[in-house]
Design a protein that fits this description.
The protein is mainly alpha-helical. About 70% of the residues lie in helices and about 5% in strands. A two-stranded antiparallel ribbon has the order 1-2.
């Protein structure tokens, strides 16, 4: 066993000395092939994966050897004291210094330039293009250098999302407010689909998603304010129209949360808070809702409304009433 190890270590060290001498050129060649892959050209994938793994294996030193298992697969085998973590900082140091650092720097340069180019498009189009590239890069990282997967993801999130979400969301001609006003669910979904890439811990409300929520909240507040300005001299029919407008707005926001923002818990909670707060600013809301309840129970029911439709209207209306607090509503 010791003789076998000595022989293998000798060959390994011979290979390492030869390989290490050419590491800078080898890394440069790998980067070249990765960029060829980005451009849609064919590359020698299996060989690239093997070379990247060899760079990592050099960092393992003599403590660990590569052995072949019963099924023919290779696995890392520790010598001396048991080694539980083959991916500790000590073992990754060589890989990081001679490959990962160079690869990450190249990635930063590529996507700093590309993301600036994408900003020439509309905000939803930026999100569509960016998401496609992010998915491709993460797939590439998983395929060729999964040891660097998290760092690649962090770099992409920082350059493509963190540095750009403010510009994208507040764009006056294609941002969140614009898409809400246009009622473009598909374009709103583009923002969320890209921004949720940054979600690692679901217990955290990330800044990019918080920005979506903030603009949605401002939109709700503004729309409710515009609707309720009519309450100062509202006739009976106008009271019905006002309530129906609020109900329609509430239904639209629910659709946005469900279809565009994938029932995001935090955005849904915040939007409900903004709607509730906006309704409670107007002191006449309880009176308006009471008048609308009278309309539902008398005139609307008298119009031969089906039982199913009527139940749905009552259910929707009472959800709206529940948003009024510290006020009496006499139905």
């Amino acid at each position: 066993y010791n003789q076998e190890r000595i022989i293998r270590m000798a060959f390994k060290n011979l290979g390492v000395r030869f390989f290490s001498k050419h590491i800078p050129r080898i890394t440069k060649t790998i980067i070249y092939f990765l960029n060829e892959d980005r451009n849609g050209n064919s590359i020698p994938g299996p060989q690239i994966k093997r070379v990247i793994r060899m760079i990592y294996e050099i960092g393992l030193g003599d403590d660990i050897d590569l052995k072949r298992g019963e099924s023919g697969e290779f696995f890392y085998h520790p010598y001396g004291k048991p080694i539980k973590d083959f991916y500790s900082p000590d073992y990754l140091k060589y890989y990081i210094e001679h490959f990962e650092t160079v690869m990450i720097e190249d990635l930063k340069n590529i996507y700093t330039a590309k993301s600036q180019e994408w900003l020439q498009q509309t905000a939803p189009e930026y999100c569509r293009i960016a998401l496609s590239y992010v998915n491709q890069e993460l797939k590439r990282a998983d395929e060729y250098y999964n040891l660097s997967y998290n760092k690649v993801r962090d770099v992409l999130i920082d350059i493509i999302i963190t540095q750009k979400y403010e510009i994208l969301c507040t764009n006056t001609s294609s941002g969140i407010w614009y898409q809400l006003s246009k009622r473009s669910i598909s374009d709103l979904k583009c923002f969320y689909s890209l921004f949720k890439v940054s979600v690692i811990d679901k217990q955290i409300f990330y800044p990019s998603l918080k920005k979506i929520s903030s603009i949605l909240g401002d939109y709700i507040t503004e729309q409710v304010k515009l609707i309720l300005t009519k309450t100062r001299e509202a006739s009976s029919q106008e009271v019905v129209d006002i309530t129906q407008e609020i109900l329609e707005l509430s239904a639209y926001i629910e659709t946005v949360i469900k279809d565009a923002f994938e029932n995001d818990r935090d955005i849904g909670k915040e939007s409900d808070h903004f709607l509730q707060q906006s309704l409670n600013v107007e002191r006449k809301c309880p009176i308006i809702f009471a008048d609308y309840a009278h309309y539902l129970l008398t005139k609307d029911l008298a119009q031969n409304t089906s039982e199913q439709d009527f139940d749905q209207k009552i259910d929707t209306f009472f959800k709206l009433i529940n948003k009024i607090y510290d006020k009496d509503i006499f139905l």
